[in-house]
Design brief:
Layout lengths: L4 E6 L5 H12 L2 E4 H14 L11 H7 L5 E6 L4 E6 L2 E2 L7 H11 L2 H14 L5 E5 L2 H5 L5 E6 L2 H14 L6 H17 L12 E4 L5 H13 L3
Parallel strand pairs: 1-6, 1-7, 2-6, 7-8
Antiparallel strand pairs: 3-4, 4-5
Helix pairs in contact: 1-9, 2-4, 2-5, 4-8, 7-8
Bound molecules: cytidine-5'-monophosphate.
Cytidine-5'-monophosphate (C5P) binds next to helix 2, helix 4 and helix 8.
InterPro entries: Cytidylate_kin, Cytidylate_kinase_dom, P-loop_NTPase
Subcellular location: Cytoplasm
Main location: cytoplasm
Length: 228
């Protein structure tokens, strides 16, 4: 069976990664969460004092240090899930917190950050057989992907899912703060100059607000089977 490239893009917390992960497992493909890569760079900038209290980023310093920065994924043998590593350290939990979430869109709007991460993502997908989720996968990273999905759901539904996810992990969460963060990231992600979030012309739109996880997987597998 021929291998294809699958791009899943959409707004924050719309369940893209759940969909992408499930599909990759179902069809035996590699899964790459590109948001985790932008989050790891953000954590690096935060830890190294490159983000001022007003949110301003010291771009010159970040640009210099970008060369020393290594973001990788390693499989956790126990859970069977890929986890994010920053310069050899497992940062999977730390990158999901609210502090990283509140700065990540500013970091992801920086051109040299995107250039470096997009190059790495393209290398990861060189041999196809990959499901990648993010904001610019169908438009910039893999414009020739055979299957492109653009996922949407209302901001309230997305904030509720994120709230439930954090609560489930035992993390203190405030619904209004999360809704605010989701809306703010939507705005920055769709209005930035470099690779703004938009649906690729040949992407299929899926509003998953009212769909169960099983229905989403079935829909994805059907689209996949049409293309292989
Ligand atoms: O997918 P997730 O919500 O973890 O992504 C975090 C942030 O990283 C997004 O809000 C967006 O600003 C940025 N991002 C991006 N391009 C991608 C993936 C994520 O700009 N391909």
């Amino acid at each position: 069976m021929k291998k294809i490239t699958i791009a899943i893009d959409g707004f924050s917390s719309c369940g893209k990664s759940t969909m992408a992960k499930m599909l990759a497992k179902e069809v035996g493909y590699i899964y790459v969460d590109t948001g985790a890569m932008y989050r790891a760079v953000t954590l690096f900038a935060m830890r190294n004092g490159m983000i001022a209290p007003n949110g301003e980023v010291n771009r010159d310093e970040l640009k210099q240090k970008m060369q020393t920065l290594r973001v990788e994924f390693k499989l956790n043998e126990q859970t069977g899930r890929a986890e994010t590593y920053l310069n050899g350290e497992n940062v999977e939990n730390e990158i999901r917190g609210m502090e990283v979430s509140s700065h990540v869109s500013a970091i992801a709007a920086i051109d040299f950050v995107r250039t470096a991460l997009v190059e790495q993502q393209q290398r990861m997908g060189r041999d196809k057989g990959i499901v990648m989720d993010g904001r610019d996968i169908g438009t910039v990273v893999f414009p020739d992907a055979e299957l492109k999905v653009f996922v949407t759901a209302s901001a309230e539904i997305r904030a509720q899912r994120r709230f439930d996810e954090l609560k489930g992990k035992g993390v203190e969460a405030n619904f209004d703060e999360i809704l605010n963060n989701v809306q703010q990231r939507d705005y920055i992600d769709s209005h930035r100059e470099v690779s703004p979030l938009r649906k690729a012309d040949d992407a299929i739109e899926l509003d998953n607000g009212e769909l169960t996880i099983a229905q989403q997987l079935q829909w994805l597998v059907e689209r996949f089977e049409e293309r292989v």
